[in-house]
Design a protein that fits this description.
2 domains, 442 residues, 12-stranded mixed β-sheet, 18% strand, globular
């Protein structure tokens, strides 16, 4: 099978106007960023968001290995499959950040024959959303240090400044730094750190904001420090919030791209699930639900993080609860959780550990990790479908072990998913499961 990059580069993309037309969007509804990427303008979002809504399907995962288990892949593949069945569907996924892109996990545009395009531009922040978040965040950092330099009217305790700087790159040497060196003209000497941009509170806020007014209000409530009297100090107090929100005026609008099979996909925001809520934006969901019968979105990390926060943070904020939950599982993850091999701490499993049949470890992992995730998700009174993301070396016995444990745990259906190798065709059974009772439609 060709590499993800070769598959993406060999694809023939549709003009983004044609993709938008599939959603009922006209050229005037778009702000083009080249022939294959566009933002949906704010007036269109306001006009459409309060109409009829489609069904929302949330894709989550068992506790993942370091490589990821294919949530984005499954989200894109299911979108393609639903469109292949004749349904009006689109997906909403998180924006990649360059730290993971250049790290062990790689890009976040799917894989194989279930990708979003243009893959390279998407992975390298084509529309500049992450640079806008970086700029907004670091503007506040600069204002804090300028305030200290100009006399510290708010009496900020320099040992209780909670606002770091950000950069969209994994750079170990910047985890802890000393700033303000070189004399009084260069500011106040203090320790600081850099976080990756996707870990910024600004990114989490951007994804939860419903409009510009909400964005400005949320940004203004950020607590950046405490005074020497232990009083909280906010971005509004220091005069940074308005300019921060202004820097994100275009980043608030979701990005429209396409899947490998030419179906519409929105990609917007990418907060991490371990330190934020781990979901794409409310605004992207709103426009997708207004234009589609089925919208498939994803939640970061495992279900105990991303899905839990989707249900208990994002859903209350948006007012939209998923109609169906898809729990993505892989044989390799079950092998790891069943003791078949170790992953993490810089160790990569060997090809033999990944590819050699180990039914005992697979069942042990499914009986613990998978079953717990299924039980937790079913407590939300939302149908749960387990999607087994199949790899070429997975055996029937290993797959059957996962299927058996998922059914015992209470999954509505268990479906084999081969969208990596076969695109939408490989996820047709999953699409049928969603439409036939998991996703609220028929």
């Amino acid at each position: 099978m060709d590499s993800d990059l070769d598959i993406a580069r060999s694809a023939t993309m549709r003009p983004i106007e044609a993709v938008a037309e599939q959603l009922g969007l006209a050229r005037s509804d778009l702000i083009l960023h080249g022939p294959h990427v566009a933002k949906v303008n704010w007036e269109t979002i306001k006009a459409k968001r309060n109409g009829d809504r489609g069904h929302l399907v949330l894709v989550t995962s068992v506790s993942p290995t370091a490589f990821g288990e294919g949530k984005t892949l499954t989200t894109i593949g299911l979108n393609q499959a639903l469109n292949a069945r004749g349904h009006n569907a689109c997906c909403v996924i998180r924006e990649p950040s360059m730290g993971p892109v250049f790290g062990i996990k790689g890009g976040a545009a799917g894989g194989g024959y279930s990708q979003v395009l243009p893959m390279e531009q998407i992975n390298l922040h084509r529309t500049g959303d992450l640079p806008a978040v970086t700029a907004a965040h670091n503007l506040c950092s600069a204002i804090i240090d300028n305030h200290l330099h100009r006399g510290n009217e708010l009496d900020i305790d320099i040992n209780r400044i909670y606002w770091p700087r950000t950069i969209d790159m994994n750079d170990r040497s910047l985890r802890q730094v000393t700033i303000g060196l070189g004399g009084a003209a260069n500011g106040v000497v203090r320790t600081d750190r850099f976080d990756i941009t996707a870990a910024s509170e600004v990114m989490a806020i951007l994804a939860l904001a419903k409009d510009y007014v909400d964005l400005r209000a949320r940004v203004g409530r950020i607590i950046i420090a405490k005074s020497n009297a232990y009083e909280p100090i906010t971005t509004d107090d220091i005069g940074a919030a308005g300019a921060m929100a202004l820097l994100m005026r275009e980043a608030l609008m979701p990005n429209l791209v396409q899947t490998l099979e030419g179906n519409p996909a929105f990609i917007h925001c990418g907060p991490f699930a371990n330190i934020a809520h781990g979901n794409s934006s409310i605004i992207a969901d709103d426009i997708a639900l207004a234009c589609s019968d089925y919208v498939i979105t994803e939640a970061g990390f495992g279900a105990e993080m991303g899905a839990e926060k989707a249900l208990h943070i994002k859903a209350p904020a948006s007012g939209v609860v998923p109609d169906c939950l898809i729990l993505n599982a892989t044989v390799r993850a079950m092998k790891m959780h069943g003791g078949g091999f170790a992953s993490g701490g810089g160790r990569r499993p060997t090809p033999e550990e990944l590819e050699t049949e180990n039914v005992e470890a697979t069942r042990a992992g499914a009986a613990t990790n998978l079953r717990r995730h299924v039980r937790n998700l079913t407590e939300n009174s939302i149908p749960v479908i387990v999607s087994i993301n199949r790899f070429a070396h997975d055996t029937e016995a290993e797959i059957e072990a996962i299927r058996d444990e998922a059914v015992k745990a209470g999954a509505r259906q268990v479906v084999l998913n081969e969208c990596h190798a076969r695109g939408g065709e490989g996820a047709l059974d999953l699409a049928d499961a969603v439409v036939g009772g998991g996703g609220g439609g028929g």
